[in-house]
Amino acid sequence: MRRLCVILALKQAYIKAIGQPMGFDWSRLEFNIPEETCMGDGAPLTGWEFRLFKSSVGVQRGGGLREEAYQCVVAFFRGTPE
């Protein structure tokens, strides 16, 4: 389940970084976690860097403090030699 959350967070971060609308076809992106590779439309996403982190926050719900955890990803373009 954690790997699925990481993959979905990676896809969402990339889609937001390139400015695509909500209707973007997520199946066009492939992230291979063990090999640390990413592909878009069958081509490597050269120049892109992804930072993963987990955020734990305390929220007040129903009169008590609860901890919630979120999987977060930041995608940014570092550039390519071309």
What labels would you give this structure?
single chain; 82 residues; alpha+beta; 3-stranded antiparallel β-sheet; two-stranded antiparallel ribbon; 5 strands
Characterize the structure shown.
The protein is an alpha+beta fold and 82 residues long. 20% of the residues lie in helices and 46% in strands. It has a 3-stranded antiparallel sheet with strand order 1-2-3, covered by helices on one side. The longest helix is centred in the N-terminal third of the chain and has 16 residues, at 2-17.
Question: Can I get a quick summary?
Answer:
By secondary structure, the chain is α+β, with helices and mostly antiparallel strands. It contains one helix and five strands.
Can you lay out the helices and strands and say which pair or pack?
Blueprint: H1 2-17, E1 29-32, E2 37-40, E3 43-44, E4 48-61, E5 64-77
Antiparallel strand pairs: 1-2, 2-3, 4-5
